[in-house]
What we know:
Aspartate Aminotransferase, domain 2
Amino acid sequence: MFPVSRLVRELESRGVDTLVDGAHAPGMLPLDLGALRPAAYTGNLHKWVCAPKGAAFLWVREDKQAELQPAVISHGNNTPRPGFSPFQDRFDWAGTFDPTAWFCVGRAIDFMGKLLPGGWVELRRRNHQLAVRARRLLCESLNVPSPCPERLLGSMATLPLPEPFQGRPKAGKLDAEQLLLYDQFGIEVPFVRLGAPERRWVRVSAQIYNSLADYEYLARALKEVE
């Protein structure tokens, strides 16, 4: 996790507008855009909120809305509607599309918030704690270091792959070992290549349908494909 609130304030004090790419934040972290108030913020709702793909949002601070235009201007730009801002009129209906994913967002938020007695607060805490335990287990099992303190984790964790995985060239869009994990073990987990010199990493996530046994299974599978 990044100190987004502090970054927004520091950049704003220097006259720099901030567009926050908060793809994973909704549902994983407490999010108060009224308090954060960057110039703009965008986030996905098909990840931790579990709405259908295509459910996302763009939030723009009031003083910046007049400056922003969509790639395709909504017909509402020419027909202002009572109760809607010019910003909404420009963006709301930019052509024929399927809004089903948008309509599901409210029900998804409500459904996920009722899965545990403590609601969203308990769900976020549970997922964070599982991600922390999963990283500990994987780092110990694979004998790799933890790249950052646990306090910087949300409900996801990225860790380096063991040395036998390093230095192998990429043959296609996906690494061969990632495909093997899916085809032979039924595991969907992303491999990434970062840094100079390049190192290979694996990223795990923790949602309410996961348990620690899933990460124990992943650790065994990684040892088999290395």
